[in-house]
Amino acid sequence: MKDHQIKLSKEHPQLDLKHVARTIVRKGLRPVPPKTSLALRVDADVVEWFKAQGPGYQTRMNAVLRAFKDAST
User: Fold this and answer.
1) What is the pLDDT along the chain (73 residues), one digit of tens a residue?
2) What's the CA gap between 25 and 29, in Å, rounded?
C-alpha cells in the first residue's frame, strides 16, 4: 500500500512513537524476562525527555535498549 492510499481518521490516526513503544512493550511476541536492578548513569537531558513522555519512562527506556540490542544481532 502506498502512503497516499492510507486514509487517516479519528479511529485510525497516524502512528506515533509513543504508540510504537507501547506496542513493543505490551504486545511483544516473547514473554518479558525478569528484570535486573542496576545503577546506571544517563545524561540528564535524556532522562528528562523520557520522563516528559509520561508515566512508564523506565519501561520505554528498556524498550529502546532492547530494540537496539535486537537490531544489533
Assistant:
1) 677 777 777 777 676 777 677 677 665 556 667 889 999 999 999 999 999 999 999 999 999 999 999 999 8
2) 10
- For residue 6, the Cα-to-chain-centroid distance in whole angstroms is 23
HSE (CB half, 13 Å, CA atoms) of 61? Answer: 17
Range of the domain at 17: 3-72
Overall domain count for the chain:
1
CA atoms within 13 Å, Cβ hemisphere of 42:
14
Query: What pTM was computed for the model?
Result: 0.54
Cα–Cα distance for residue pair 72/54, rounded to 1 Å: 28
Q: How far apart are CA 63 and CA 58, in angstroms?
A: 9
